[in-house]
Design brief:
The complex is a heterodimer of chains A (about 775) and B (about 425). In chain A, about 30% of the residues lie in helices and about 15% in strands. With about 775 residues, chain A is of the alpha/beta class. In chain A, β21, α16 and β22 (about 500-505) form a beta-alpha-beta unit. Chain A is globular. Chain B folds into 3 domains: about 25-235, Rossmann fold; about 245-325, Ubiquitin-like (UB roll); about 330-430, NADH-ubiquinone oxidoreductase 51kDa subunit, iron-sulphur binding domain (de novo design (two linked rop proteins), Up-down Bundle), CATH 1.20.1440.230. In chain B, the strands form 3 sheets. A 5-stranded mixed beta sheet of chain B has the order 6-5-11-8-9, with helices on one face. Classes of the chains: A alpha/beta (about 775), B alpha/beta (about 425).
Chain lengths: ~775, ~425
């Protein structure tokens, strides 16, 4: 678009045609104040704070509704404008309760800032303020009515942004009031976007209100760990008697892939961390009862037992189950520990997507995975299966707002009338379980066509859809776990022919990371077959070559009394699969977890684990965007899974420097301690130097493993400085191993909805308190627990 | 039904069928009804627009924009349907003319709407009737039914091949909806809140289609212009102020009522001659010349012609033609309070200055009038009004500010007389009488 030249306060400003004056001013570093204007929401012109003087216009103009025109001359600050803004603030303060000393927003309130800027400190009014009682709209949303300045941001973000439309305005004039959809309470997605976007303290959070002053918190930018989307979030953290307490989660840092967005889980569901059922000391089964012990005792027992089984029955008698909510570093470490220390390939995790099949297609091809940002910018999107509104709230936000703001074309194929159909250009409802047939049909197999025809589609509409999709350039194809096995390659072949990009949806926070890091019995990190020699074999020395047992096979082996030890990290197979505790009577079970889950309850040793807010590392979201997790603070009485694994290896008599590449190494052994052959250079050391990095000095430093991941795992060689800065870094599957064709039944989607999140959700008071969280059958929720 | 008044100076154009039973379609046709439509069907759309433009007809709702010019802004080609919207949300205090047109000559409105439709190429027209005028809906419905039955509206209007549908829509009772963009919101079933402009309704209006929005009196004038010609109509008024105007005379007058007078009729004469002067030998104190949102004129400012330009020169507005005479027994503080009470009640609440400003002005005036005033209040009332003026989302804020500023400036002494806890001097006077 051609540029338009204007003059603002004597400065020449150039901006594209159609730019709003308020935005054009921003590009020139001139801030025009506003309450109601909010980027990407509809224009209001209601607060009148952005009044500016435009030459040749009789009245002051609102910069938020004025589109720039060539030669426009604008003044944004003079006595007249200053007075206009001052009087707006005076009027707002008139009926405002001015309870700033106790208001949640005090210190981070836009009305306070405007008052500070425009000096409307002296009141002209002596009459009584209008008052209304505060309302509780839900367990998480409170509305302090007199504080509201009616900027309508909440109404718009709820309607336009979330497509929920739960808020509106009642009455008129000075009686105007924001109101929830069910008269005095909300029925909505409880995302809390309205609270974050509120410029004052009118909408407050049930989790945070009256708990602290903003300046008494540390603000820690990290990544939410509830689902596979990886929203950036800022935690408000206070000191407490256990070390630290998270009192707030918000999205004040809008630089993340989620921009303005967070859902109820990201905003409130950190509260599982403070649940009173949290395990706070190691437990050892003595005389049939789990009994508190010291860390030292627990590690010694586990190390000794694992080494004993390994040496007596062989590594194949040990099983390891990893987690979808531990960090990449922990997952990488765990599979390395299994293979190098326990000498077994019996390692698996709860699979929720067919990433090996995904990698198999992409291996050796030009990069064609879509980032979470791509989903917001793509001109067209095909969504097959899944219900992102429930299972991937950020992805749903990206899709919805891409359609709203960029006019993207959305094609939805689903067996249910999911909410995103409302944004769809074409919505095709299919019979349950027919997703693979859709893939086949798109791939050119017309024999499945009849099976796709429903009451609201026919052969022509399907053929038409295929033709339309073939005509789309830069299509992003997003598919849920309904597409697995062969269907993955069929669908991706269709997409590949038209240059599409892909997203394969996995459910848990680090499902993708668990897959990428090789929590598979037959795959090493980067989807490389265990049997294939390569960098890992070279670096780690001798590891078992034969594929190990997958999760169900391990359980079968335990039932048969032949699995002598089982190490479970952050997973709950007993609860999830409804196993009989008796199956493990012959197995020494070690569980690392936050809570006494069904699996922990049958364990011989339970180690209390830190959660992702209490440790550092990286997570990979379902799109393959790598992001950093920052420790919110030190917590007593728990340890990170990383540290526990290293301690167990040590207790098993293993030289941990061969597990975690820490210390400068000794020049004498030329790095042999890290597995290099005699006389060879220490590859790790060489890589560190080449990348300007220092060796890490502690075996408990996950950054040491991140170094190894970046060195060895294909696609993870992203910019370290950007990663540490908190930027999402997209990983590539182009150079990954060839993946594998797995039994499709191994994939069991978590089916978490907006208000559940496996074990984390089970212990979140907030998630369980909202009325919308109707788990009719509590057992159902527990099955999903992981 | 309101009783009708008359005066020899009246030039009856729009009101010529008042009291003649023209709600009956046969009677309307006998009185030249729908002849203008037949004529217009023979004309090119541009010719209709030019005729109206040249007649000098200016919007009778208050803003006084040239009607033909407004029509000419509607794009010839439009992907979306075009609409005619007749603004019958007559709510300006002191104004009561549109209801008489609806009541006595509803077909003239329908005929005007159809001609406007022909001029701009619309195929549907909506007649929005103020919510409080419920009794008029039946009249409108009957008139529309009649027009359909006789082929003046509907498919193939009078065999011309031109289709045009007419609907009425009843408001829910909001002054704000008289503002044209709020009117469209209301008609579309939303809250009556103005839209951001531009785009203007002529380009993006009802349901996104180009829309002509005219006042009832404006549209009812159109058939007369088509029949009588632009020149004839223009000559009835003063230059650039074509035609006649329905003036609504109310307040302290001996003969209040709606009179149709040529544009430019002298205001003083209007009060003392047409309106019959002030009752009971009292003196005129102030005049609201064109509805409650106009700055007031004092008794010695009224020797001027009543047209858009002369009133603007005198620092006020011709507005909607609602003239209110105020005699010397009236407390101007109370008058200001009454006006503010109205605007506070009617503010839609969308923007800060109007929503909060009218509230604080009413609170202050209320306290002030009841004896709780302090000297600072007088300046504050002016300060608040001046800071509302020109800064609100729509002209409602101006409508509240303008009369208030004029009252404080012109009658400051009356404010001072209320200070120091003194009771309202005028109420004291009334009690003693």
């Amino acid at each position: 678009m051609p540029d338009v030249n204007i003059t603002v306060d004597g400065k020449k400003v150039t901006a594209p045609t159609g730019t709003l004056l308020i935005e054009a001013c921003k590009t020139a570093g001139i801030e025009v104040p506003s309450f109601c204007y909010y980027p990407n929401l509809s224009l209001q012109g209601a607060c009148r704070m952005c009044l500016v003087r435009v030459e040749k216009m009789p009245k002051l103009q609102t910069a938020c509704t004025t589109v720039i025109t060539e030669g426009m001359v604008v003044a944004t600050d003079n006595d007249e404008i200053h007075q206009a803004r001052k009087s707006m603030v005076e009027l707002l303060l008139g009926n405002h309760p001015l309870d700033c000393p106790v208001c949640d927003a005090g210190g981070e309130c836009e009305l306070q800032d405007m008052t500070f800027s425009y000096g409307a400190a002296e009141s002209k009014f002596i009459d009584i303020k209008n008052h209304r009682e505060e309302q509780q709209w839900s367990p998480v949303v409170y509305f302090d009515r007199p504080r509201c300045i009616l900027c309508y941001r909440c109404v718009r973000v709820c309607g336009e942004g979330m497509d929920v439309w739960a808020l509106g305005v009642q009455n008129r004039g000075v009686s105007s009031i924001i109101a929830p959809n069910l008269e005095d309470h909300l029925n909505c997605e409880e995302c809390g976007m309205c609270i974050d976007i509120c410029p004052v303290g009118a909408l407050t959070s049930g989790a945070y209100r009256y708990k602290t002053r903003p300046w008494e918190m540390n603000h820690v930018g990290t990544t939410c760990t509830h689902c596979g989307d990886g929203c950036k979030t800022t935690l408000g953290v206070r000191r407490s008697d256990t070390g630290m307490e998270i009192v707030r989660g918000d999205n004040r840092d809008k630089s993340g892939i989620n921009g303005d967005f967070l859902c109820i889980k990201g905003r409130y569901a950190f509260d599982f961390a403070n649940h009173e059922d949290r395990l706070t000391q190691p437990l050892i089964r003595k005389n049939g009862r789990l009994t508190p012990s010291t860390w030292e005792e627990a590690f010694q027992l586990i190390g000794k037992k694992f080494a004993e089984v390994r040496d007596k029955d062989g590594g194949e008698a040990i099983g390891v189950i990893g987690s979808t909510r531990t960090t990449n570093e922990e997952n990488y470490l765990l599979q390395k520990f299994a293979r190098v220390v326990l000498r077994t390939n019996n390692i698996d995790h709860h699979r929720t997507a067919d990433f090996p099949a995904f990698a198999a297609v992409l291996s050796g091809k030009p990069e064609s995975t879509a980032t979470m940002r791509d989903v917001f910018n793509a001109p067209a999107i095909l969504l097959i299966g899944n219900n992102p509104t429930d299972q991937h709230p950020l992805l749903a936000w990206q899709i919805r707002n891409n359609v709203r703001l960029h006019g993207a074309r959305l094609y939805v194929v689903n067996s249910e009338p999911i909410k995103l159909r409302r944004q769809a250009t074409i919505f095709s409802q299919i019979p349950e379980g027919a997703e693979a047939r859709v893939a086949a049909f798109l791939g050119g197999d017309d024999s499945v066509l009849d099976a796709l025809v429903t009451a609201n589609s026919n052969r022509e509409s399907w053929t038409g859809l295929r033709e339309t999709l073939r005509g789309e350039r830069n299509l992003v194809i997003i598919f849920g776990s309904e597409i697995r096995g062969d269907a993955v390659s069929v669908l991706m072949k269709f997409g590949g022919a038209i240059g599409a990009k892909f997203v394969c949806l996995g459910d848990y926070a680090n499902s993708r990371g668990a897959a990428d890091m090789g929590l598979y019995p037959d795959l090493l990190p980067g989807y490389q077959a265990v049997a294939q020699s390569g960098k890992f074999h070279e670096g780690w020395g001798d590891i078992p070559n034969a594929p190990g047992l997958n999760l169900p096979a391990m359980l079968e082996r335990a039932k048969a009394g032949k699995l002598k030890a089982l190490h479970v990290v952050g997973a709950n197979p007993v609860g999830r699969l409804g196993l009989n505790p008796g199956d493990f009577s012959q197995t020494f079970v070690v569980v690392q977890d936050m809570f006494l889950t069904e699996t922990a309850a049958i364990a011989d040793v339970v180690l209390p684990a830190a959660n992702a807010y209490e440790k550092s590392g990286t997570f990979t979201n379902t799109c393959g965007d790598l992001q950093i997790i920052k420790k919110a603070g030190e917590v007593t009485s728990v340890k990170s899974d990383f540290e526990m694994i290293v301690r167990i290896a040590d207790a098993a008599g293993f030289d941990v420097s061969k597990l975690v590449p820490f210390s400068r190494g000794s020049r004498a052994d030329m790095g042999q301690s890290r597995g290099a052959q005699s006389g060879e250079a220490d590859q790790h050391r060489v890589w560190l130097e080449a990348n300007g990095l220092e060796p890490k000095m502690s075996p408990f430093d996950p950054m040491a493993i991140l170094d190894e991941i970046q060195r060895l795992v294909p696609g993870y060689d992203v910019s370290r400085i950007n990663l540490l800065a908190g930027n999402d870094q997209h990983t590539s599957l182009s150079n990954s191993g060839r993946g594998a064709a797995h039994d499709a039944n191994l994939i069991v989607p978590a089916n978490n909805d907006l208000f559940s999140s496996g074990t984390l959700g089970r212990y979140s008071r907030t998630l369980n308190s909202v009325l919308e969280n109707h788990h009719k059958n509590p057992a159902e929720a527990e099955v999903a627990a992981d | 039904m309101a009783s009708l008044v008359s005066h020899p100076d009246e030039v009856k154009v729009v009101s010529k069928r008042f009291g003649m039973g023209a709600t009956n379609i046969d009677r309307y046709c006998e009185l030249d009804g729908y002849t203008a439509l037949q004529k217009a069907l023979e004309m090119q759309p541009d010719a209709i627009i030019n005729e109206v433009k040249n007649s000098g007809l200016r919007g009778r709702g208050g803003a006084g924009f040239n009607t033909g010019l407004k029509w000419s802004f509607v794009p010839k080609q439009s992907a979306k349907p075009k609409y005619i919207l007749c603004n019958g949300d007559e709510s300006e205090p002191g104004t009561c003319k549109d209801r008489l047109i609806f009541e006595h000559d509803p077909h003239a409105v329908i005929e005007g709407v159809v001609i406007a439709g022909l001029a701009v190429g619309a195929h549907a027209g909506y007649i929005y009737v103020r919510g409080e005028y419920r009794y008029l809906l039946e009249i409108m419905q009957k008139a529309i039914d009649g027009a359909y039955a006789r082929g003046f509206v509907g498919k193939n209007v009078l065999g011309s091949g031109y289709n045009f549908d007419v609907y009425w829509h009843g408001g829910a009772g909001a002054y704000e909806v008289g503002e044209e963009s709020a009117l469209m919101e209301s008609l579309e079933g939303k809250r009556g809140i103005p839209r951001i402009r531009p785009p203007f309704p002529a380009v993006v209006g009802l349901w996104g289609g180009p829309t002509v929005i005219n006042n009832v009196e404006t549209l009812a004038s159109v058939p007369h212009i088509i029949n009588g010609g632009a020149e004839w109509f223009a000559k009835l008024g003063t230059p650039k102020n074509g035609g006649t105007r329905l003036f609504c005379l109310s307040g302290h007058l001996n003969r209040p009522g709606v009179y149709e007078l040529p544009m430019g009729y002298n205001l003083k004469k209007m009060i003392y001659d047409v309106g019959g002067g002030i009752p009971n030998g009292r003196k005129l104190k102030a005049v609201v010349p064109g509805g409650s949102s106009c700055p007031l004129l004092t008794a010695d400012e009224i020797d001027l012609p009543m047209d858009f330009d002369s009133l603007a020169k005198a620092g006020s507005m011709l507005g909607s033609g609602g003239l209110v005479a105020v005699d010397d027994t009236t407390c101007m503080v109370k008058f200001a309070l009454r006006i503010m009470k109205f605007y506070r009640h009617e503010s839609c609440g969308w923007c800060i200055p109007c929503r909060e400003g009218t509230d604080w002005l009413e609170k202050t005036l209320k306290r002030f009038h009841s004896g709780g005033g302090i000297e600072k209040d007088i300046d504050n009332i002016q300060y608040l009004s001046e800071n509302m003026l020109g800064r609100t989302f729509c002209p409602l804020g101006d409508a509240a500010a303008l009369p208030t500023i004029s009252i404080v400036k012109k009658f400051r002494k009356e404010f001072e007389d209320h200070l120091e806890g003194r009771p309202c001097p005028f109420e004291e006077h009334l009690v003693s009488v």
